[in-house]
Specification:
This protein has helices spanning 33-44, 73-78, 89-99, 114-118, 129-134, and strands spanning 18-22, 48-53, 58-60, 63-67, 81-84, 103-107, 123-126. It has 138 residues and is an alpha/beta fold. It has a seven-stranded mixed β-sheet with strand order 3-4-2-1-5-6-7, with helices on both faces.
Length: 138
């Protein structure tokens, strides 16, 4: 399944979604391309995006960043959909299984994630056409 839910026009979706983006780090602490891509999505999204990460307790350019703690599942329960990538993928898969929330994985490169391959009900956002051709997620 190839999707780009972050850029759905309001007319295409009946309501704004509460999107929880569960990732290892967020700007300005993480300045790699993957983290910047997440920030670009969250910043220009038509939906309400919140970041759950290892470093939190701040707002960056209007995006709330929450520190992951023992009560992190409360944030999952408040969300309509979860987005993840990189080092939080396995954790997000297990958390979505516990809460029943839909999960979207962002594939930044051609590295295979066995956990994503094993769970075919996960949505995937590819960052390049070449990545789609190399990975068996859909």
């Amino acid at each position: 399944m190839i999707i780009s839910l972050m850029h759905l026009e309001l007319e295409q979706h009946s309501k704004m979604l509460n999107v929880l983006i569960h990732i290892p780090q967020y700007v300005p602490h993480g300045l790699d391309g993957a983290t910047q891509m997440i920030h670009d999505y969250a910043s220009c999204s038509y939906h309400n995006c919140t970041i759950l990460s290892d470093e939190g307790g701040y707002i960056h350019e209007g995006i709330e960043v929450i520190k992951e703690d023992k009560d992190y599942l409360d944030h999952y329960n408040d969300a309509d959909v979860i987005v993840t990538h990189l080092g939080k993928t396995g954790h997000a898969i297990n958390s979505c299984r516990r809460t029943g929330k839909p999960l979207v994985f962002i594939s930044h490169n051609a590295n295979r994630y066995g956990a994503v391959e094993a769970h075919r009900n996960i949505g995937v956002i590819y960052n390049a056409h070449s990545t789609i051709e190399k990975l068996p997620y859909s």
